[in-house]
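Look over this record as teaching material.
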Amino acid sequence: MNIFKRKLSAILICCLLMGLLSACGEAEEEKAYSSPSFTTKEEETATSTDSGEENASISDALMIASYTDATVSDADSAVPASLTDALPMGVYQDNVYYNGLAEFKITVDGFTWKLYDSVEVASATGATEDDINNLWYGFRSPYEEETTYAAIAYNQETGSNIIVSYVNPEEYLMPEFTARQYLDMAASRYDGLSVTDVTFLGQKYSCLDIPEELSTVGRRTQFAIDKDGLIILITITLNDTTTLEDAVSIMTPLYY
């Protein structure tokens, strides 16, 4: 487990915003596969067109798996009543993570796929347990933070993982920055990659698919959507034999 945590920590470092500043006020050195920096002001020159066309290869994978929830019974997957009053970070109940903000859930079997608890999320993200619990239980708000982590699901056999994080443009003094622009900035680091549109979890998401040969951490597929002033980012990192269909199969629309 310690080896796996170190591996996941390395992946998370790649996903952290490079706009975080050091104590001396200088930007940290950018990692090759990190998420885009809000401090570069690239948003002023970036152009983005919404063609309305979907990435066929990704859409096929999503169509195969998005509405599969065979790991639990209807009773097990019932939406908890508390979700109507849920905090933006979501709700955990047994082996299910419910996200009421973007209206999806992640259901794990507890054996192959597991959900990190607050201690493990804190360890993987470099935060403290109190930091994570304060967010998850509403003593702190994602609207007060630059980047927050709502859930991490991991595959114990392959090391693949799903990370649900929030980016708050308001905290970067860029309230109009969108999910599409966020992924466009990330895509600009790669030759020949572009952001596409996909129907995912019953909604329209922007999607950036980074093939394994361009990534040091395995194939990485990112889905981003704008919700209530936040960018909700779902990052799926695939290792070994795990396919995109495998990972997406544990995610479903909340009210499906």
Notes: The mean pLDDT is 78.
